[in-house]
Amino acid sequence: MARARHSRYPRARASFIEASCMTTRYPALCLKCLSRYANSSKIHNAQQLAQVALTVSLYRARYTRSYMLKVAKELEAMKAKEYPAVRDCLQQIEDSVIQLSQSIRELRRLEPRAGMTDDIFLHINNVETWVSAALTDASFCVDEFPGRRMSKMRATIKGKVLNVAQLTSNALALFHQYAARYRAAANKKP
After folding, report:
1. Residue 103 belongs to domain with CATH number
2. pLDDT for the residue numbered 118
3. Mean pLDDT across the chain
């Protein structure tokens, strides 16, 4: 895949990021998190946009995991009734961190200039599988805290995990945009 025309121009990159974010489930969050990269040299094409989106999601998942580790230790020491739910949620977020890390490594293995090979689709499927699993884990964690009436601590955890789920959903959507180009090209082959 050739580099997009917007690779050298910050304004064009900003437009590219905005147009891409508008196709995600949480466009405002997408723009908030990715627009800061319009002036950097990190985003030149759809693959790099997906890479940055996954990295942002991973960073947020790691931050949330650190927060939850601290809370879980405090709850365990107090033998609080919330501890099992927080422990289970923490495990889900730890799984998300691993899966997002794997997806980023796998995306780096995709070489657009290598052409259409079966390996490309193997890598694409791996990324989609790991990001989808990370999204599922974060969503299950959110489900550990049902309802609206909850303690400040539970509400804070739910908010942080929901943010991870939304960022991961956006990253998956941006990766799907990137992968769709390969699928479309494969469908045109005789």
Report:
1. 1.20.140.40
2. 67
3. 87
